Amino acid sequence: MAKRNQFWSQRETEEASRQEDEVKQKETQKEEAERKRKERELQEAKKREEQFRVRSKSIEEKRKQDRDTAQRQEEERKEKEAARAQAYTKEYEDEKARSAAAGGRRQEAEEMIRAGKAVRPIPPVPQARPRHEPEPEPEPEIEPEPEPRYEPEPEPEPEPRYEPEPEPEPEPEPEPEPEPEPEPEPEPEPEPEPEPEPEPEPEPEPEQDNEYDVPESGPGTGRDPSTGYYDTAADQQDDDNLYDNADAIIDTAQTESTEDGGVRAQALYDYQAADDTEITFDPGDIITEINQIDPGWWQGRAPDGSYGLFPANYVEVLE
């Protein structure tokens, strides 16, 4: 009985020791597990902190990059706006300057026009042109007056002595308009001479008188003051000699003018040609090769090369 009790006591002691060992082992395992858990949590915390720090750093860098990008874009936008504003301002100033310059030029042009209108002299009225415009070569103008036209005149001379019919024929006298002045002159000879008037050919003769300054009809000229025609064939021959002398005088004058380089004149006013026989020039133009064929109208060469008539009182002869 005692052995059994000892056995059970020993068993109880061993059981208690085993239970204590189990408790110690469990506590040790528990402590080990707790330590590992703490270490794991600490590592995880460190890892999370490291991740957070990295993430925060990346976020900060990204924010900084975004700020830098936004700042750079803002600066570029401001620079572009400043450049556009400067370009617009420059364009506006240039446009304003051009407008001011154009206005100044327009005002200056208007002032010059007004000044030109105020200062520009009024051109004089040109004298009446000769009815027969002279050509550069006057020889063909003399040809229409051949002597045969006047040869039959001596034949009708005896007719007025016996026939009074010529008296009503002086009515056509208005045709030679330049001749009315000599009519008042008292001449006893005109009465037998009205007979030649029916011939129309002598009409160019007054024009030749104007062109070559042939003396007016009167005593000693061989022409009837009332009719303007030749009295006799001898008088006609004398007048033809005058025409020949006029041609020689004109040829001599043209030769002398050509040898001297030609008469030149400066235009005082502007003149527009009325037809192709006249020339056109502006104030200040130089007219060359001038031929002073008439007191009121001369011939000359314009700056454009055309040659023709122009009023003499529109130019000033150059020395």
From TrEMBL:
Pfam families: SH3_9. Residues 136-145, 165-214 have a biased composition (Acidic residues). Gene3D superfamilies: SH3 Domains (2.30.30.40). The keyword Cytoplasm applies. The keyword RNA-binding does not apply. It is found in: Cytoplasm, Cytoskeleton. This is Drebrin B. The lineage of its organism: Eukaryota, Metazoa, Cnidaria, Anthozoa, Octocorallia.
